[in-house]
Amino acid sequence: MALSNPLYTAYERRLAKHLSADSVPRHVGVMLDGNRRWAKARGAGTSEGHQAGADNIANLLTWCEEVGVEVVTLWLLSTDNLARDEAELRPLLGIIERAVDALAGTGRWRLHPVGALSLLPDVTRERLMAAAARTADVDGMLVNVAVGYGGRREIADAVRSLLLEHAGRGTTIEELAEILDVEHIAEHLYTKGQPDPDLVIRTSGEQRLGGFLLWQSAHSEFYFCEAYWPDFRKVDFLRALRAYGERHRRFGA
């Protein structure tokens, strides 16, 4: 049974009131999952599900902004998704392009595309980069827009970039092997210079990473929510923060 508006608002306020400073992660990664299943459950088309998901993104960013999150990473499209049928992929890319344009148009958040952008159609890549350029000077929350993203691909790209950098310096493979450590690779990730995610949220009830921020999430806390992404509400977000705040982070110890 759905909560009436007054009850929902009261519960939301209660959750927010009891959040401590420790409940606010610096960096939140979100796997926006369940758009297609949301649409199927309603007898709607796949594009309608993707659009409903896109329409919920600004809400999430607003909630993050309200509690003081500094960085948000949104996984909008994986490298595996690029192999989908063109009849589904092209409309999905169009929805992503328009969603990113709309986020940039608010002037509230600094957008940073992450992923194997070279694999994307030219128009999609150009619109992502244009949104990044438009928001480069925004003094607001940093939002990583992960499109054409895969964790294994990111690590491979980081290693490739590292090798090319040292080759340009004249470093031999043997010399590089002597000095190589995890920080050298971290400096070549798509998210270089950013804090690793403290909290990773996945919607739709799936309890797996699926390749999201594989390197960066080594010490992250995970929260799995049953709601499909288009149905994800502020109360769900606050519950995730509450669960995060109740955990004793061990950072691999």
From TrEMBL:
**Protein family (similarity comment):** Belongs to the UPP synthase family. Z-FPP synthase subfamily.
Instruction: Describe the protein's quaternary organization and the partners it interacts with.
Output: Homodimer.
Required co-factor? Mg(2+)
Keywords, in A-Z order? Magnesium, Metal-binding, Transferase
* Molecular functions (GO terms): ditrans,polycis-polyprenyl diphosphate synthase [(2E,6E)-farnesyl diphosphate specific] activity; magnesium ion binding; Z-farnesyl diphosphate synthase activity
Extract one GO cellular component term from the record: plasma membrane
Can you say what this protein is called?
Isoprenyl transferase
Supply the source organism for this entry.
Knoellia remsis
Enzyme Commission numbers on file = 2.5.1.-
Residues bound to Mg(2+) are D33, E221
Q: Which Gene3D superfamilies match?
A: Decaprenyl diphosphate synthase-like
